[in-house]
Design brief:
The complex is a heterotrimer of chains A (483), B (319) and C (222).
Chain A (H helix, E strand, L loop, with lengths): L2 H19 L5 H26 L2 E3 L4 E3 L1 H30 L5 H23 L3 H19 L5 H36 L8 H6 L6 H19 L7 H8 L2 H29 L4 H21 L5 H22 L1 H33 L10 H4 L1 H14 L6 H16 L3 H24 L15 H15 L3 H13 L2
Antiparallel strand pairs in A: 1-2
Helix pairs in contact in A: 1-2, 1-4, 2-3, 2-4, 3-4, 3-10, 3-13, 3-19, 4-5, 4-10, 5-6, 5-10, 6-8, 6-9, 8-10, 8-11, 9-10, 9-12, 10-12, 10-13, 11-12, 11-17, 12-13, 13-15, 13-16, 13-18, 13-19, 15-17, 15-18, 16-18
Chain B lengths: L4 H32 L9 H10 L11 H20 L15 H21 L3 H32 L4 H9 L7 H17 L18 H4 L5 H26 L10 H28 L8 H22 L4
Helix pairs in contact in B: 1-3, 1-9, 1-10, 2-9, 3-4, 3-9, 4-5, 5-7, 5-11, 6-9, 7-9, 7-11, 9-10
Chain C lengths: L6 H22 L3 H26 L2 H29 L11 H23 L9 H18 L3 H23 L4 H29 L14
Helix pairs in contact in C: 1-2, 1-5, 1-6, 2-3, 2-6, 3-7, 4-5, 5-6, 6-7
The chains are: A mainly alpha (483), B mainly alpha (319), C mainly alpha (222).
């Protein structure tokens, strides 16, 4: 059977299955099993693409090349580890009485549907379908964020829905404008929204329309990436939703939204002279980075703080892709991978820590090392990794971005250094007392799943020290496609 | 402009018709209103009886009345007659028309407004002053809206002369102008406010908290009052004809076309009849709004007029 | 000078203008139920304009999307919203954050900006009704304005849907409609979104005893 179809069908079917039978005892296992199946299919697909080159599926509606297969593999992997993590985590939540059985069912089915929308958004060749899938992803995650049904979580979900609804509406307008520009070249047919067709004629697209289309698309999908000034939903949604949801939001959803921008940027670069799209992205990226860095120090809630850290990194990545060129694109892709793995690992550790201590307020979390050394080390190492300490992979990618910026956009270097420095001081100063210090421990009814934390951190460490040559080739290929 | 006898006669006829028809229109609106509100209707000719009665009464002047107070009714009446003379009701062949284009027409209405407000304040009673101030408030908001409505129409036909507007609009292939729809709604709202009709003012009551027009003319009596009442009727007639000319110009006769002129009379009566009925309908289904809402009402009219012009510039300019 | 505009284009322009007018009326409307009625009317006008484009261009998929618009936006969604408002006993007034005349003035400014932005692009359109792109953008902006200046959750949702109307207008009139798959997907998303929001309303009311999102100001950075 076609691995691609398998990869999309597994989460879709298991999502439907879990909707019906999600309260059975085997349901959590099915969730993990489905994620495993998806990951295996995605891995197989990756091997296939690396070996045979790009391919289509369902006519020309889906298209997998070296750029998106990389995201697919990453998404499926983090999806798998998060589902492993969420098993004991959600069981603990249920044992604490924070979640009922129907809620758990909702969680599992929405988790699978969310994976489906993510993978479909990544692989679709049709920019209209991309929009539809992004919106569907918003809808599923809105339900996930509001899972606890507390006033705060409802407020967060509402904000998320409205803000992302507005953002995604801008993106739809941008898509319509893009279609409008494409139609003038490709004629009125079903192909005018297909990326593979658009990329062939990108030089002929009307610049005036493309400028407007790109602005709308950047602002629209940028809302989902968490680009300032439309980033307000992100900390709320991360802080009030269940921790596995925070992990996939930061680790996957932001990536997919950024991926959508990258696809459009390729078209915009072809049509608009003077690196317009890149400059716009650099501006947004820097602004976001700086804003998030300064908000970091004001946070009291640990999940909120790491949400701002995600915004900060998204700003940095947007800046990197804005610079463009093989090196910066390579660094951007690497940083996206590193950030996904590290941030989800951090959220796993944070999730266990908050469950143990029963609070998300950082001032009340103390002595994690005493409660559970593995969680304590996990959080500490994850924090060091995300802050760009060598030898972790984030250091490598941040270093590449910085040096590239120094060479080509020297004016931005002080801003980057300032933001990274402020972020370092803020996060490290707050995590350190959480990890060390005194506390009274509490036993949880279900042993936490620590493995995903260290698998992720191990990967990040490995990629910081040594990137396998096929991976380098693959990154280079993807970076070259971005132009 | 050539001066022709037929044109002169047509002009004279139009003025006489306006003077004669205006009270009838007021009576018709009152009658429709009474029907719609399920009460006994006053006779259709009631405004004439009232004018007749008032003209035969002596004038009672307040002690403090200045000459302005006495002159004002004549000025106002004169302004309205001039307005009726400029607006094509039957024929576009009006020798007076070059005297004032659509913009000057707004000025003529403005002049009448200034005089009635001054006269209201002249005596020094609190009601007169109150009415005068409210009238100026309404005018200050309604005039820009009216001007923009006229700009929109003028942009379409490239002329500000009312006669030219009618000629161009009436004898062209039928085209839907979305901008005219906006302008039409705005114009209706302005007309309601300018003629002291229901959502803004109520011509039938003397309620001190809300009245505008009636407050200013409380001190008038006899032939002065008759002139002012007649002028109010003429104003309604003038606005009706202006609305018809701008938005439903079909049937208004061209130059030197006597038969068309004859045909235009029943058509005008029909259009005015329908217009009067619609006015009564609007007055019946709407409630009088608080005076503080009036700026909002007129602000909406202004906004619609501006929208109309913007739509005109966006949609209709590039063909 | 105007005689060359075909009737269909005139009709589309007219309907587009009516949609814009309704967007303003929604901005000025104070009663929640009337607001929903206006939204239904906007949906119906959108249906009419889509129908005209469909008849004019003879593209069968536009008929489908016209039918979709009619059922979804003129009947189904307003009906759902009506029921919600009744069941939730939402108080009649919309409670703006900024007073309505000011909102309208901002609205006019937004319309001017949108028209200016869209003007150079409309020039490039080969479509019969190219000016409508600016109107569509203006409708989107006005709906956006409504969403950020109203306190009630219901009003925000109506604003969201009205925004969708504007987008749909852009899609049909400027480009003769997106491919069918995309349109179906969008419609599905909107429908599911409204249903989810409907569920949300009940939960929000249970938790906050009100649908006034003013109460939702707990989550802040401090």
């Amino acid at each position: 059977m076609d691995l691609f179809i398998l990869m999309l069908a597994i989460p879709l079917v298991s999502g439907a299955l879990l909707t019906v039978a999600g309260e059975r005892a085997w349901a959590p296992n099915l969730n993990v099993l489905a994620s495993l199946g998806t990951f295996l299919a995605a891995a197989g697909l990756t091997v296939e693409i690396v070996a045979n080159g790009p391919r289509f599926a369902f006519g020309e509606q889906f298209f997998i090349d070296s750029l998106n297969v990389f995201f697919v593999a990453l998404t499926a992997f983090v999806g798998l580890t998060t589902s492993i993590f969420s098993g004991p985590y959600m069981a603990n939540e249920a044992a604490h009485g924070r979640l009922t059985k129907p809620r758990l069912r909702l969680y599992k089915s929405m988790y699978q549907f969310f994976m489906f929308t993510m993978l479909a958004a990544l692989t679709t060749n049709n920019l209209g379908l991309l929009w539809v899938m992004m919106e569907a992803a918003t809808l599923t995650t809105v339900l996930l964020v509001s899972l606890y049904r507390t006033p705060a979580s409802l407020e967060a979900a509402w904000k998320y829905f409205i803000l992302c609804g507005v953002g995604i509406a801008q993106a739809l307008f941008g898509t319509i404008l893009l279609y409008f520009a494409a139609e003038r070249v490709l004629g009125h047919s079903g192909t005018a929204l297909l990326w593979t067709h658009l990329v062939e004629v990108k030089g002929q697209l009307e610049p005036a329309i493309m400028v407007l289309a790109f602005i709308f698309l950047l602002v629209g999908y940028g809302t989902k990436v968490g680009l300032a000034p439309l980033h307000n939903w992100l900390p709320d949604a991360h802080a009030e939703g269940p921790t596995p949801v925070s992990a996939v939001l930061s680790g996957l959803l932001l990536n997919v939204a950024l991926y959508a921008i990258l696809r459009v940027k390729v078209l915009a670069d072809g049509a608009i002279p003077d690196n317009f799209a890149g400059n716009l992205m650099m501006g947004f990226g820097l602004f976001t980075l700086l804003l998030a860095a300064f908000f970091l120090s004001r946070q009291k809630d640990v999940k909120r703080m790491f949400a701002y850290s995600s915004i900060e990194h998204m700003g940095l990545i947007t800046f990197a892709f804005g610079m463009g060129g093989a090196v910066a694109n390579f660094a951007g892709l690497l940083h996206m991978t590193m950030h996904s793995l590290t941030k989800s690992a951090i959220f796993f550790a944070v999730g266990h820590a908050t469950q143990k201590t029963g609070t998300q307020i950082m001032a009340d979390i103390r002595g994690l090392m005493k409660i559970n050394p593995l969680i304590g080390w996990g959080l500490m190492l994850g924090t060091l990794a995300i802050l760009g300490m060598p030898p972790f992979g984030v250091f490598a990618s941040e270093f590449m971005i910085l040096t590239h910026a120094m060479k080509h956009h020297a004016w931005a270097t002080p801003i980057l250094l300032l933001a990274l420095g402020v972020a370092f001081a803020a996060i490290f100063g707050k995590v350190q007392p959480m990890v060390f210090g005194e506390t009274e421990a509490k036993r949880l009814p279900h042993a936490p799943a620590i493995t995903p934390v260290f698998v992720h951190l191990g990967l990040v460490l490995m990629l910081g020290l040594w990137i396998p040559p096929y991976l380098t080739r693959w990154f280079h290929e993807a970076a070259r496609m971005l132009g | 402009m050539t001066f022709s006898l037929s044109g002169f006669l047509g002009q004279l006829f139009a003025i006489v018709l306006a003077l004669a028809l205006a009270p009838l229109l007021t009576g018709w609106v009152n009658q429709c209103r009474a029907w719609l509100q399920n009460r006994g209707a006053p006779p259709l000719l009631q405004p004439y009886y009232m004018l007749h009665k008032l003209f035969h009464k002596d004038v009672v002047l307040a002690h403090g009345a200045s000459s302005l107070f006495r002159a004002a009714p004549f000025v106002i009446f004169g302004c309205m007659v001039l307005a009726c003379a400029i607006i094509p009701s039957l024929s576009t062949d009006l020798p007076f028309a070059p005297a004032a284009d659509a913009l000057a027409l707004v000025g003529v209405f403005g002049l009448a407004r200034v005089f009635i407000a001054l006269a209201g304040m002249d005596i020094g009673t609190s009601f007169g002053t109150l009415g005068g101030r409210r009238e100026m408030l309404v005018g200050f908001l309604a005039e820009p809206a009216l001007l923009i409505v006229i700009f929109t129409v003028a942009l379409i036909v490239q002329s500000t002369s009312v006669a030219t507007i009618v000629e161009t609009l009436a004898h062209r292939d039928f085209i839907i102008y979305p901008s005219l729809a906006f302008a039409g709604v705005a114009f209706t709202m302005v007309s309601l406010a300018e003629n002291a009709r229901v959502p803004v003012d109520n011509p039938a009551t003397h309620l001190e908290l809300t009245m505008i027009h009636e407050a200013m003319i409380l001190e008038y009596s006899g032939r002065h009052l008759a002139l002012i009442e007649w002028a109010a009727s003429l104003k309604l007639y003038a606005y009706s004809c202006l609305g018809l000319a701008l938005f439903f110009p079909w049937g208004i006769a061209e130059r030197d076309n006597f038969l068309a002129l004859l045909a235009a009379i029943p058509l005008l009566l029909l259009k005015l009849g329908i217009g009067g009925f619609l006015l009564a309908l609007i007055e019946t289904i709407n409630a009088k709004m608080r005076i503080f809402r009036a700026p909002e009402f007129l602000g909406t009219a202004f906004l619609l007029a501006v929208l109309g012009m913007l739509v005109k510039l966006l949609l209709e300019n590039r063909v | 000078m105007n005689a060359v505009i075909p009737l269909s284009a005139q009709l589309i322009n007219l309907f587009a203008s009516v949609i814009l007018l309704l967007a303003f009326a929604m901005l000025a409307q104070r009663r929640v139920l009337k607001l929903i009625d206006l939204f239904a009317l906007q949906g119906f006008t959108l249906f009419l304009s889509t129908l005209v484009v469909a008849v004019k261009t003879g593209q069968s998929h536009l008929y489908y999307s016209a039918a979709l618009t009619l059922t979804l936006k003129a009947f189904l969604l307003p009906w759902i919203l009506h029921r919600l408002v009744r069941r939730l006993h939402v108080k009649g007034e919309v409670e703006p954050l900024i007073n309505i005349p000011t909102t309208m003035l901002i609205g006019i400014a937004l319309v001017m900006i949108s028209f200016n932005v869209a003007l150079p692009i409309s020039e490039l359109s080969s479509s019969i009704a190219r000016g409508t792109l600016g109107i569509a953008l203006a409708v989107v902006m006005l709906a956006f304005l409504m969403m950020i200046t109203r306190r009630k959750a219901v009003t925000q949702v109506v604003g969201f849907l009205s925004m969708e109307n504007g987008l749909f207008l852009a899609a049909t009139s400027a480009t003769y409609g997106m491919p069918m798959v995309v349109e179906l997907g969008i419609a599905l998303d909107v429908l599911v979104g409204v249903i989810i929001l409907g569920v949300f309303f009940f939960q929000i009311r249970d938790q906050f005893d009100s649908l006034d999102i003013h109460h939702m100001e707990r989550l802040k950075d401090n």
